[in-house]
Amino acid sequence: MRLHRSGYAGGALALLMFGLLRRMDGGFGREAITSRYYDVQASQLLKLRWDMPQQLLGVEGFRTGSKWYMYFGPVPSFLRMPMIAIRPSLTGHLGTVMMFIALAVALFASTRLVTRIRMLVRGQDSPVVSSELWCIAIFVFGCGAASTLFFLGTEPWVYHEALMWGVAFTMAAFASILAFIIDRRTKSLLLASLFATAAILSRGPVALGVVAALGLLAAGALFRKSRVWFGLDADASPLRLVASLGLAAWVPIAAFATINYIKFGSFFDLPNSRQSISLVNPNRKAVLASNHGSLFSPGYLITNVAQYVRPDALRLNRLFPFITFPPLANNFGGHLYDTIEPTSSIPSSMPALALLALVGIAVVMWPRSPFRSNSVSLRAILLGSLIGPLVTLTLAYIAQRYIADVIPFLVICGALGMWCVYQWSADRKVARRVLGSFFLALTIVGFIVNLGLAIDYRYLNPFVPEGPRLSAFVSDQYRIDRKWNHGKMPHVIRVDKMPTEVQKRATVAILSGCSGVYWSSGEYWSAIARTRATGLHDFTLRFPAVDSPTWLPVLVAGDAEGSQTLAVQLQGDRRLTFGLRTVSPEKWRHFNEKAGWVRGVTVRYEPGRTYHMRVILDQNNGAVRMTISAADGTTIPTSRAFFVPGRLELTPRQAREFVVPHSQVTIGRNDFGAWTEPRFSGSIVETQPKYLPKICSILDE
Known about the structure:
By secondary structure, the chain is of the alpha+beta class. 47% of the residues lie in helices and 15% in strands. Strands 18-17-16-11-20 form a 5-stranded antiparallel sheet, with no helix packed on it. A 5-stranded antiparallel sheet has the order 15-14-13-12-19.
C-alpha cells in the first residue's frame, strides 16, 4: 500500500498541474470547437440513436445514406449519459472534466504498472525503502505532467479527449493483463477484456496493442515452451488458457465491428471518401487518391519515424513561452500528406520516459542482461504496446498529439528500466544519488517542455482563427520581450507589400505605416491587426423592413472587370443571411456554389434597430468575414454571427489569392451588377478608429 500511495501522490501533483493548465484557459466548463461532440452523442444515445446533426459535425461528419455519423468511439459518450440525462445544460461543458478523469485513470494504471514491475525486478518480498517511494512518485508524476498527456490539456477538443481515454484504458488493460500473468486470476482477465473494449471504442490504434497482446498470449498458451516464454503457468491446461484468452481478445473486436457496421455499413472499414472534408478539400482528395482511399500507407513510415524520434525537435525562443516547436517535418520521399502540424518528438518532449525506456529495451534485448529473466512476464504487453505506435507511424498526418499513442510502451519499458537501474545501483550509493537526481531533473525538464509546447500550441496552433485570442497573445509576447530586451524585435520583418510566399512560422510582417500586422503559421498569414487599408471596415447600420427576400449591398470591392460583393439578404420573416458574390471566373472556380452566392449563417433582426457590423475583405491573406452584433447587446439570438467562406475549400495558395485585388471600395452601393439592389435602403455609416492598432506601438522600434 505504501508503494501505491506514493504513486497516487505523484499522480495527484500531476493532476494539479493539469488543472492549473486548464484554469489558464478559462476553467473546466469552457466550450471549444468539437467539444460538444461527445455530449451531443450522449444525448442522441439516450434517444437510442447513433446519428448526429450534420451542422455540428461539420468536416468531421461521415454520411451513410441520409444520416451523418462521427468516427470517434462512443465510450466517452457512454460515460456522459448519466450527467446529460440529469442535466442537459451541461452539453458542451464536460470536455475538460472528462479529460481530467481520463488522466486520473491513466495515472492510476501507471501506478499499478510501476508497482507490479517493481515486484518482478526487486522481488515480492523485498523491503520497501523511502528511495523507492520517491522513484514511484516521480515516475507517475512524469507520466502525467512530463508527457504528451499533459500537452493534450491545451484544448478540450474531441481529438485530445479520445487520445486520453484510449491511452488510459489501454494502460489499465495492460496492467490487468500483467496481473493475470502473475496472479493467474480470472478476474484480472475479465478486467483486461473490459478495459480493452473501452479502449478500442475510444481510440482504435492504441487499443489494438491490447488485443494483440491477448492474441499473442492465446497463441503462446498452446505449447509448454511458449507458455514459459510468455511467463504463463507452464502446467496450466492449454485449452482452457487458449479459450479464455481468445475470448478476452474477441470481445473488443466484436464490439468495434458491431458499432462500425451500425454507423458505416462495414465491420472494420472507415469510408474516408464519405467524410465531409473529403468532399470539399482538394488536398484530402489527392491524399486519398494516392493511397487507394486510405489515410494510412507504409510510405509515410520514414518521414514519421524521423520526426517522432529525432532528438533535436525543440527550439528555444526569445519570446514567451520561450520553448517552441521545430520547423515542420522534412518529407522524405515526397509522399502527399493530409496535414503536417508543428510537432516535437518523443525524446525531446518526454526525455525521462524516453531514456528509461531505452534502458528497458536494452534489458529485454541484450542476451547477457542480468535482469532479462525478470522481464519474461512483460513480453506480451511489450510487444502489444508497440502496435499502436506502428499504426500511427503509417498515418498521413503528423501532429504532437499522436505521440500519446507511444505512452503505454514508454511507461512499461520505462518502469522496467527504472527498477533495473535501481537494483543495479543497490550497492552504489553515490551512483544511485547521481542517477536519481538526473532522473528528477529530466522529469522537471519534461514538465517545462510540455508546458511551453502546450501554451505555444494553445494560442498559435494551425486551427486558431484570426481574432482577439491570437492578436492578444502575440501582443503579449512582444510586450513581455520589450520589458527585458532592447533593440531589434525578433522574427519581425517590415515590408511595403506582403511577400508572395509565406515566411517561416512565427514571422511577423508589418506593412508600411503599420496599416496591417500579420503572423505566419508557416502555411498562411493570419492578421494580428488591420486598418481600412488592409480590408477592415466597421459600420453602424439599421435594416429596413421588407416583404420579400431582398439582397442589399454592404460593401463592394473592385471594378466592372472583377469585383466582390458582401451583402445581406433580408427576408420577410425578419431573418437575414450573409452572402459573398465574386465576379472573376478564375477565382470563382475554387468554390462548388452554383447559384453565384456563397452563403453564410442566418440570424434574426429587428427593422429600425441599430446594429454594429464588422466586415473584413483582405487581399493580403484572402480573409473574408462579416460579424454583426446589436448596439445595445440585447437582440438577435446569435449575438455574433459569422460569415466565413472557409479555408478548407481552398488550397493555401488559393486562399491567399481568393480576394480580388482592388483599390476601390464602395459602401452601401453596387454599381457593377443587378444581383443586389443598387443601394442599401436602410441606413449605413462607416466608422473608423482614430488611432493605429495598439500592437503598432509595441512593435515600434
